[in-house]
Model the fold of this input.
Amino acid sequence: MKAVLQRVQKANVCVNNQTVGQIESGVLIFLGIVAEDTQDDIEWLSKKITNLRIFNDSQGVMNVSLKDHKGDALVVSQFTLHALTKKGNRPSYVKAARPETARPLYDEFVHQLKLELDKPIQTGIFGTNMTVELKNDGPVTIIIDSKNRE
Done:
């Protein structure tokens, strides 16, 4: 499971010009899933995201977690995070999980994040073409891969 986190002042996702998810201060999470992902990946990644200290404390130092900040989360599925670009100029997405595998894992990740933060989680609509707008804060962008837990 791979996530790209964007610390945001606000973000929203639209489908067919209709807002389907929006947040204020928090994180926008682009989530890519591979077929090998498991409940362990979900639990590890959701804990890592909610406890990662990427928000400023009163001294202006990134020392506050999403959980302590009481920030919002917006999760957007993004299979293109697993693009293979080594050969040629057309990315290959063979590593990305098929929708029938990815959808339940995506839903479980959102559920686990809700448990970790003890608040509703905003989402896009899995498998659809979405437009995402964000007001980046920092900017702070972090990539986390549950298969590479360094």
Summary: The radius of gyration is 15 Å. The chain has a mean pLDDT of 96. DSSP finds three helices and eight strands in the chain.
